[in-house]
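Data deposition worksheet. Section B asks for the primary sequence of the deposited chain exactly as it was used as input, without tags or linkers unless they were present during the calculation. Section C holds the resulting structure in C-alpha cell form. Section D is free text for depositor observations; keep each observation to a single sentence. Incomplete worksheets are returned to the depositor.
Section A, Depositor: J.P.
Section B:
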Amino acid sequence: MWAIIIPTFAVLSIVGAVYLVTRVHRFSFVRKFGETHRVLAWLVSIPPVALLALFLLINVYAAAVVVVHVFAIWLLCDLAAFIIRKCRKRERGVRYIAGAVAVGISVVYLSVGWFCMHHVFEVSYSFTTEKDLGGEPLRVVLLSDSHIGDTMSGETFAREMQRVQATNPDVVVICGDFVDDDTPKEEMIRSCQALGELKPTYGVYFVYGNHDRGYYRYRDFSPQELREELRKNGVVILEDQALLIDDRFYLVGRQDRSVRDRKEMDALMSGLDHSKYTILLDHQPNDYENEAREGVDLVLSGHTHGGHLFPAMFFGVWTGLNERSYGTEVRGETRFLVTSGISGWGVPFKTGAISEYVVIDIEGK
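Section C:
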C-alpha cells in the first residue's frame, strides 16, 4: 500500500507546486508587474510557493503534506469561483479573490492542524457492565502512539504524564507505538522514566505496536534496551498474556498484528473466568469479529491516529486495514474503543483528528 501512497503523494506535490506558482502569478500586482517584466513576474511567483519548502526542515513528509493540502484548498476555491461566475454570467474580474480566500483558508486550516497535533486533549468515556468489579468503579487511562522523538519529545511526554497522574487512574495502559524507528535513546529513556513516575493503583501495562521493535534498525538502541528500560521503571509488558488484576478484572495484551506467530483469540482467552470483566489491549483495530466472539468486554486500540490527515480516516476502513479509525462501537457484548493517540508520526499536523489521552470510567454492578 505504501508503494502506491508515496509515489502518488510525490506526484501530487510536484503538480501542486506548479499549480500554486501559476495561481500566485494571477494576483493583480504580479500580473501588473508582468506587463513590463514578463519573465521576472514568473520568477516572482516562485518564492511564495518555495516558502512551503521550509517544512523540509521538519521532514519531507511534512513539506509534501503542506503542499498537497494548500493545492487542494486552492483548487477548490478556484472551482467555487468558476461556478459562481458561471451562475452569475460574469467574466473573471481583475482582483483574484479566490486566491486570497485560498491563502486565508490554508493558513487557518494548517494552524488548527498544528494545534490539534501539539495540544493534548483529555477525552473521557463512561461505560457500565453487569459484571462485578469488586464494588468500586474502575478508572483506566489509555495512551497510544506517542512515537517519542518524532512529534513529541521525552520531556513533553513527561509533562503529559503529570496530567495523567492527576486523573488518579487505577490502571494505565499503553497500546503500542510508544517509540518510533528513529527515536533517540535519551528520549526513550526519559519517557520510560516518566512512566515510572506514574502511581496508578494497579500499575502500568504495555503492548507492542508495529513501530516499537523498529523496522529499519537505524536507531541508537535495541528492542531489548527498550524492554529493559520499561521494566526498570515498573512497566509490565504483555505479549499474548492475560493477567487477573486484584481478582477484579483481566488485562489481556496481544502481540501486534505484524508478529506472525501471535496467538489467536481463542487460545489467548482459553481458561479465563468469563464472569470477570476483561480488557484487551490490541494495537491495531482489525480483529473485531474474533475478539467479540470470545466474549471480551472492552477492546482498546490505537495505530490509526484517528485518521491523522483528512480524509485518511476513511481509507483504513474502506480498504479493510482497520475495523475502525476512531471512537467506539459495540458488537454483541463487546465494546471497542480506538484512540487517536497522544501524538503522531511523521507529519506535525492532525487535520482529521486530535492528540489525546483517554480516561475511561467503568461502573460495575
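Section D:
The mean pLDDT is 91.
The radius of gyration is 24 Å.
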